[in-house]
Fold this protein.
Amino acid sequence: MSDFSLSDLERIVATRAQASPEESWTAKLMAQGQAKASKKLGEEAVEAVIAAVSGDRDNLVSESADLLYHLMVVLKIADIPLQDVMSELERRTRQSGIQEKASR
């Protein structure tokens, strides 16, 4: 099993964001702004859902990787560290999902 983590992906996105848009898809996507990056995130989410519903395991794995990557780009553009998301997940896991939903 790989030790690769979302924190590793976050670091890679941050590094590649500093490259030239002609040399890096990440830099190009970031240069196009939040609207374009968010659109790509949405497209990948839809593709992941389609793969899940159709039972296409290999495609679901691939689309999930694309989804996580594009989420990291959107978070980077918004200047939201992954740790903020992880802290929110940790907070939510202190209670059941039903309790958490009722508290909103």
User: Anything to note?
Assistant: The domain at 6-102 is CATH 1.10.287.1080 (Helix Hairpins). The CA atoms of residues 64 and 100 lie 25 Å apart.
